[in-house]
Amino acid sequence: MTTTPAIIESDPTTRTGEGDAVLRVVVVNGSPSRPSKTMGLVETTLGYLKGLLPIEASQIDVYHLGPGFTGAVEREDVTPEVEATIRLAEEADLLIAATPVFHGSYPGMFKHFFDLVDQYALANKLVLIAATGGGDRHALVLEHALRPLFGFFQAMTVPVAFYASSGDFDGTVLLNPRVHGRIQVGLNDVADLLRARATGIPAAQDV
């Protein structure tokens, strides 16, 4: 595993059998904290996902991309390193957009990242949305803020979405078995869709 200040890449896992296609997963993390509850939720999700199919996971921490990102108004303004990071997200098989909730919505730095993404780069892209917040009422961010954001990009936001509140964690470790169950069941429900993207063979839902 190689590590940079903004991106963490992991080696492919082959739990479902040798020769299977690998799903390239890119996490766009909107939390300013390291570690964070948001990434605790994502790591739990990735753990269950690895049990379904081989994946190669990369992580983009938007709050740690530096002045070449924060000072950019247009895509042309970013540094080559940030350009490579944005392209990583645009070229994923599955994009996991994960963010904490601030005042009922995603933080500005998270939005700034997607402001720099090409308008058509995520068209038909599989996107899984996830969020964490102080209480259950913040779960509305999934349907009222995150799903419309990716609707603008014409992305294929998967039907399931994951949310966890502060009380579901011990520190940054997700403990609530009900949330674990929702993640496991939700991923099983869309496993064929995800597997189809890895193999390039359309599933019944992916038409």
UniProtKB/TrEMBL annotation:
Record keywords: Flavoprotein, FMN, Oxidoreductase
Signal peptide as annotated in the record: none
Keyword Disulfide bond recorded: no
Residues annotated as domain NADPH-dependent FMN reductase-like: 24-166
Protein name: NAD(P)H-dependent oxidoreductase
Annotated source species: Actinomadura adrarensis
